[in-house]
Write a structure and sequence with these properties.
By secondary structure, the protein is mostly beta strands. The protein has 1 helix and 11 strands.
């Protein structure tokens, strides 16, 4: 059985030059246990949005201002195990810092929904 070890990420139809790694959180709910004295009696749920964290290689074509200002984007993730995911209504959650020594940009995103395509 093949294990996911690499991903291609596209934004606006163009592949981002990543290191092939990243972290995708599908979102859903955080659950918190509720106690009655010392005994668990249930839980509450709080919604959590889907998120994506990825490192991009910086080249002369990389526009960190554009990446920092992304809103209402569609991000496509193609894994090397054949799964494809779409992050709809995606937006950057913080400015994209450039690490000059490493030549990389850290991209942190969230979105309205994550769907398997």
């Amino acid at each position: 059985m093949k294990i996911t070890g690499n991903v291609k990420i596209r934004e606006g139809g163009e592949e981002l030059l990543t290191d092939g790694k990243g972290t995708l959180n599908p979102g859903g709910f955080e659950r918190e246990t509720k106690l009655n004295g010392r005994k668990p009696v249930g839980y509450t749920e709080n919604p959590v949005a889907p998120t994506l964290s990825v490192t991009i290689h910086h080249t002369q074509a990389t526009d960190i201002v554009r990446l920092s200002n992304l809103t209402d984007a569609t991000i496509i993730l193609d894994t090397d195990t054949g799964q494809t995911w779409m992050l709809r209504g995606a937006f950057t959650t913080s400015p994209t810092p450039l690490d000059v020594g490493a030549g990389t940009v850290q991209l942190e995103m969230s979105g309205l929904a994550l769907e398997r395509v």
